[in-house]
Amino acid sequence: MRILLPLLIALPVVWAALAAVVYRFNRRAADLITALVTLITCGFAIALYLFHPLNYPIVFRLFGISLVLDGLSHLLILTAGIVALFVAIYSISYMEKYGRKDLFYVLFMLMLAGIYGVVLSGDLIVMFIFLEMAALSAYALVAFGLESQPLEASFKYFIMGEAASAFILIAIGLVHAAAGTFDLAEAALRLQMTAPFIKAVALGLFLTGFGMKSALFPLHAWLPDAHTAAPSPISAMLSGVLIKALGIYAIVRVLFNVFGMTSQISSILMILGIISILVGVLLALGQWDFKRLLAYHSVSQIGYIALGVGLATPLGIMGGLYHLFNHAIFKSLLFLNAGSVESQIGTRDLKEMGGLSRKMPVTSATSLVASLSIAGIPPFNGFWSKLFIILACVQAGKIWLALFAVIGSILTLASFLKVQRYAFFGQAKETLSEIKESPVPMTIAMVSLALICLAIGLLSPFVINYLINPAVGAVANGVGYGRIVLGASK
Amino acid sequence: MGIEMSQMFWTFFIFFALLLVEGFYCIIVTYNFLRVLIGLELLMKAVTLFIIVAGYLSGNLALAQSIAITVIVIEVVVVVVAAGIIIGFFREYDSLNIKNARSMKG
């Protein structure tokens, strides 16, 4: 099974190199192969779940570079695989209007490979290189429309993202100076003896850098612009996978497994999380741009994940990671809905929509599923993960945090009622009488994601047992990660 | 850390800190796209220098130097992507003034 780890990264990179050539000769084949590559990587993730013993990491070493697959990275790979598969299917028709689909496929595949690389790498420098690969393709993809808004959003994202990369690189340098290694597992063992001051500085720099990438509260300024201006499938990828793989995953890996969690860091994460929840949802309430509203909700939902993980109790970590998985599914579905509406009626302004439920039944029904999921209505998936986070707050004796999390959830429901009321229900506008449902590939992607939302909600105990608990185990190992990974690679 | 090593360290470290502050200052005060990019490059140069310092401290200078080369290669790609965005802007507005970029608010 070890060989699947480098293949997960190599397959998208190889196809990125070939996509432009194949597209020149046969456009349909390029569409199909892109979807096939994402399907194969998603299949690899599922195969690894089926054929590999739980709670034990797989390590692949080549030329001193190690790729490590444990429960946490496995969850992220599955998430990325599922979202990328449906985004690829959706893009087949959505990206027609932009032209130059070959460039889109090249950048999309490089971004996917970068995400897999960040999640799999067991080495800080390799992680940084893949992080830059994913981030640079993301800047280019945000600017894909080449109009004033995409360019502006992309430049803003670029400056903030590269400043974050500089912070991360300084922190990596500090770890190297203190521990003499770039390897995560060895650093986890050697950093125990390091002076607390150096560790605190490095942790602060890591938290700033990865916090910027994951758009936690004071560092979220780039996210609403980038998610609004990007093509919708890319918004779905950014919100569903990129901010989690480059931000939350890296924070969790470095904080828990390399440095070791302390109560100060835990409270910082919880406070950032709760402020993100409230600020994100309050800013979202006032938005009339469909995608901008969804983008602010990403800030808010990332806050829930940070709150759950920051509690650092097993229940809290489980709630946070479960919410990470669920948010990837329903938020990418919502962005695909927004893209479907935008491509059919030509605007993102909620005031100019209305009565779309009769004209676009599939988009309307799937967006209802996703809205109920994100608002935390049973039996959809968002309900369970929010419930676990709130229960974990109460269990840890932090009643106030639980209260604010509930308030955030209610405000989320309010803002999605607004979306449903203005866009899909209500009076049909006369200008919208000629509107038709989106093409088949787009509806297939939306319906599949909606079914996954429902399935995760109904099969919650199985999902927690087989997908989430191994990830929680990997996080809860703490700095024991170093010993376990070094033991597995012998 | 011996006295000679300590002197080397502080020389490098002061240059690193100066470059870092210059880079941030340049990004914050200017209203020109290209100058922002140059500020960012100063920042990345500071970080590259710091990687070398880190290698010197941990006694792994060869590894740190090879990492520094890798970082320089990444920077080239960074500049290419940023230059592409800036050219797009120039075609849109016929100017490099950042104050033009105010279409997204709220």
Structural description of this entry:
The complex is a heterodimer of chains A (490) and B (106). With 490 residues, chain A is mainly alpha-helical. Chain A has a domain at 273-458. In chain A, 79% of the residues lie in helices and 2% in strands. In chain A, strand 1 and strand 2 (65-69) form a beta hairpin. In chain A, helix 1 (4-25) packs antiparallel against helix 4, helix 6 (148-179) packs across helix 9 (222-229) and helix 10 packs antiparallel against helix 13. The model of chain A has no long low-confidence stretch (mean pLDDT 91). Chain B is mainly alpha-helical. Chain B has a single domain (3-97), classed as Orthogonal Bundle (Helix Hairpins), CATH 1.10.287.3510. In chain B, helix 2 (33-58) packs antiparallel against helix 3. The radius of gyration of chain B is 18 Å and the shape is elongated. At the A-B interface, helix 5, helix 6 and helix 9 of A face helix 1, helix 2 and helix 3 of B.
Which sheet architecture does the biggest sheet of chain B show? Answer: none
Major sheet of chain A, described briefly?
2 strands, antiparallel
Q: What's the alpha carbon Rg of chain B, rounded to whole Å?
A: 18 Å
Order of helices and strands of chain B: HHH
Question: Globular, elongated, flat, extended or rod-shaped: what is the shape of chain B?
Answer: elongated
Q: CATH class of chain B, please? A: Mainly Alpha
Spatial gap, N to C terminus of chain B: 52 Å
- Oligomerization state of this entry? heterodimer
Q: How are strands sequenced across the largest beta sheet of chain A?
A: 1-2
Helix content of chain B: over 70%
Low-pLDDT sequence parts of chain B:
none
Structural class of chain A, by secondary structure, is mainly alpha
Q: What is the gyration radius of chain A calculated from CA atoms?
A: 21 Å
> What is the succession of H and E elements of chain A?
HHEEHHHHHHHHHHHHHHHHHH
